[in-house]
Amino acid sequence: MRTLILLVLAAMLSGCGYNQIQQKDEAVNAGWSEVLNQYKRRADLVPNLVNTVKGYAAHEQQVLTAVTEARAKVGSMEVDAGDPASLAQFQQAQGELSSALSRLMVVVENYPDLKADRAFLDLQTQLEGTENRIAVARGRYIQLVQDYNTYVRSFPQNLVAKMFGYGPRPNFTVDNERAIQEAPAVDFGAPGAAGTRQQQPQPQPAG
Fold it and tell me: Could you tell me the keywords of this UniProt record (predicted)?
């Protein structure tokens, strides 16, 4: 009788979405791990990038220090993706690193020898690829969280979710998402390319 009751309960839970909640929750966790992996990949590139730039532009200390400090900040964080405040701090720190890297790349434009350095070119390629991976991983995570949140808020699985302590998960917010989507300009295929992208000509008023 006990086994029969357990089987009935298992069937009821399955029918109410318990198994799907588990699967979606695990998918979100896996997606978050990939986001962290890609951000860590970028952070690991920063020391070599800073040292390479320093070899040609040691007097650009303010920019180099900003990148180093921003990298140290993201490296020291222990983020909890289930805590909205912790996730917001994580987004802010990553946005600060993105901004610092963007400023560093503007400085690099003033050093043709650095832009032709083989080590720098390799780091440029790695950083550009990592920024693309970050965008893909972050976009996938946003979709996974949206899917999970929609599911656990829907009836009747919302009852099962509350029963077992599964609530909606925080996601990247619009403002912070925009900030961390600003990937550093790392394409030096043509002289002045970065400046061209950042400063588009403004239309002149008629008359």
Answer: Membrane, Transmembrane, Transmembrane helix
